[in-house]
Amino acid sequence: MTNTADKGDRLASAVSRIRGLLGEANCLVEPAAVEPYVVDFRRLYHGSTPLVALPSTTAEVSAVLAVCNELGVGVVPHGGNTSYCGGATPHAAGDEIVVGLRRLNRIRELDPANHSLVAEAGCVLADVQRAAESVERLFPLALGSEGSCQIGGNLSTNAGGLAAVKYGVARDLVLGLEVVLADGRVLDELKSLRKDNTGYDLRHLFLGAEGTLGIITAASLKLLPRPRTIETLFAAVADPEAALELLGRLRVASGDDVTTFELLPRSAVELVCEHVNPTADPLGGTHAWYVLCEVSSARDDPSLRAAIELELERALEAGLVIDAVFATSGPQREALWRLRESIPEAQRRAGASLKHDVSVPVASLPAFVARASAAALAVVPDARLVTYGHAGDGNLHFNLSVARDGDDALFLARGSDVEAAVLDIVREFRGSISAEHGIGQLKRAQLKSYKGPVALSVMHSIKQALDPNGIMNPGKVLADR
Amino acid sequence: MTNTADKGDRLASAVSRIRGLLGEANCLVEPAAVEPYVVDFRRLYHGSTPLVALPSTTAEVSAVLAVCNELGVGVVPHGGNTSYCGGATPHAAGDEIVVGLRRLNRIRELDPANHSLVAEAGCVLADVQRAAESVERLFPLALGSEGSCQIGGNLSTNAGGLAAVKYGVARDLVLGLEVVLADGRVLDELKSLRKDNTGYDLRHLFLGAEGTLGIITAASLKLLPRPRTIETLFAAVADPEAALELLGRLRVASGDDVTTFELLPRSAVELVCEHVNPTADPLGGTHAWYVLCEVSSARDDPSLRAAIELELERALEAGLVIDAVFATSGPQREALWRLRESIPEAQRRAGASLKHDVSVPVASLPAFVARASAAALAVVPDARLVTYGHAGDGNLHFNLSVARDGDDALFLARGSDVEAAVLDIVREFRGSISAEHGIGQLKRAQLKSYKGPVALSVMHSIKQALDPNGIMNPGKVLADR
Hints:
- The structure is a homodimer of 481-residue chains.
- By secondary structure, chain A is an alpha+beta fold.
- Chain A contains 17 helices and 19 strands.
- In chain A, strand 5 and strand 6 form a beta hairpin.
- In chain A, helix 8 packs antiparallel against helix 10 (302-317).
- At the A-B interface, strand 9, helix 7, strand 11, helix 8 and helix 17 of A face strand 9, helix 7, strand 11, helix 8 and helix 17 of B.
């Protein structure tokens, strides 16, 4: 199957057979219709494909994959197209078929008594959240892109987000999976059980595999009781160390109900005030670091606020916290969240940026910030550090913006040097070079450098075992397309 | 490698080389010394081995496996020997080497600020719990056998236990793993991170694989703040449906802090009173079903008890709860727990028993109990049903004891018929035929019948990819030794 002419024939044959299977209406071939499927969210990649197939059932996904596997044609699964790493964008060669999952978008089952729901891959995350809310339940995965990202993509990339400090990442919220394997067979592990020790856990192979081992078509998701008490606070702290000490105290004071714990540097607040909203800063004065913290309880609990306030007073007395404000209304809460969520937009408007989605053990976060900041500034001394993120998980978006009057191109030209400096320090701290955004196309080379050789070898063995023809999202995650 | 004489030579060579590697003192070969390693906890199996190797470092485990892989000699990993399914017992042929992990028992790292600790496989679970307590943390895995089981075995069997309703099962408590692969390579995924999306999640392959893919030598485990408020209550309810309604209400009233929710039938209370402790029944009167419920909070929270009491009063008024008692002292709490934990002993003293460790979706539990009870009694009409367990997880020990004056042998002879009847109903409810005890040797045939063929095929592919010579715990989980 290495002859080029033969390869073209096989691709044409696959396209033709899939058009027959799904019908013309569900097969996009015109360039204008295909375009949204071949450019990634960050516009880092522009791919090409002869066909976007839009199956609406698991059986159709199965039939499409069986054809592609038989003919050795690559398949790129495509959800809400919110990957930060080009994970859902085909290569420019145009020899892969895109499988869009958006028509596979039913909530198959909603079971509040079992605290579970079964959603198909193409369900938009916000719709899953709303389905849970409709029966007084919470589906706790919360992402900036929740209005457009799809649950299949969330699971395939093991999305993290804003509430992982309490609820875990996407893989922690999955009870069961339905997956179409590379050869079209349907792996039905769509159980809604809390305990099931019957052999190898196959769910976790596909969760986070970015579509390289099969296509997740449906999942049974874990729900929780809806929160009835939510307290949101914004605090100024001297440094990341003080932030972590505060986190530890609030975990105890709240009964381990801290659901969000975000760290923001002064630079992020200033960028948002300058570029997005001049009144975004909720506190007077200039402070080096800030924390956005949310505590949620399923219980209707007026005593929770008092318990947190008491702990906060102690933290103020101890000098851990310099200033703090509670949201006392819905709009105030939204304003605090908007400040946090406006940082990417503010960075975009502030010119070129360099971004690193990394994690370290939570306790190592202050030392990591100090070391990595110095190392990055040694490469680009006039850059603005915009290090923010999910400190409660040890997950930082270790970002830099170009200096106020700096040259974008010169700044970006130092990108790989900055990255190497930062990731080497991540390695020293036994951290992760991709905490929540995955690998996709963007970080394949870094994965090869920073992942251990034994782990890489085991990954290749598994890829070979489950996708021997190499048709599933070729060249994503593993580097050897 | 199929010639029998050659096989004997290879086994002898492996034994000799391993004795050289570890030293005579760490190699058990005398029958009396070997005996505890070849008989399982339930005495269902009596195996044989020429050698129990006792490595004390990961490097030694690696060296042992490299030898066995080279020579094609089977290896049986052995922890605290508490498997209910013969998972750690060698076959009777005597052609496998047992690798005992008990000397690999260091706590390598204790990091309260990161809420994590790193323990080697041979650490006894209770010692891990104590290490966490020593720094004001909780390691929440709680099992009846915690005084002797080892963490490596807990993880390899994905143990469940008494607190899974809140904290999840063993696999939910693992941040990172160190594993020696079949060929002796060391897979170092021993990170203590909350977020790490760098390729396939290899941890979850080994968690629950019962030593058939490699040997877990160390794990980074998730800790939580130590509970400061614990409320324990025992309630009489009319039926499993009322129990589940109570669970839902208590989850909300407690802020989702229900950590244990056990269901007990009247028969279990009567068996414990008759065979273990005549004063075990904490409530007057005769009630069909009981619930043992514990609520824990990391917060020092006097209002929690009042909130639960209020909900309990409402449940009494609504007729959901018939009677209830709170533990008001440590000894009272212990007595309630002892009642629950004495059930296996009481069943043992009551004569022959038939046991099924199954799970169904939590909401299906009442219907399952009704259907399975009828089906079991249709086979053994005079048996005593002793259906109890972790109702909050949908996990029941669906057990039967022989009639008071029944014949053990006649009763046991119906075992496979009862099992088939029960497991067929489990399948109808999309449940699990082994919720927390795993497969081992005991349930291989059932796995083959009840697991889907695609899942079985994928499991075999993974086994072949990671252990091509088939040396890791041969004939466990998968049936084709």
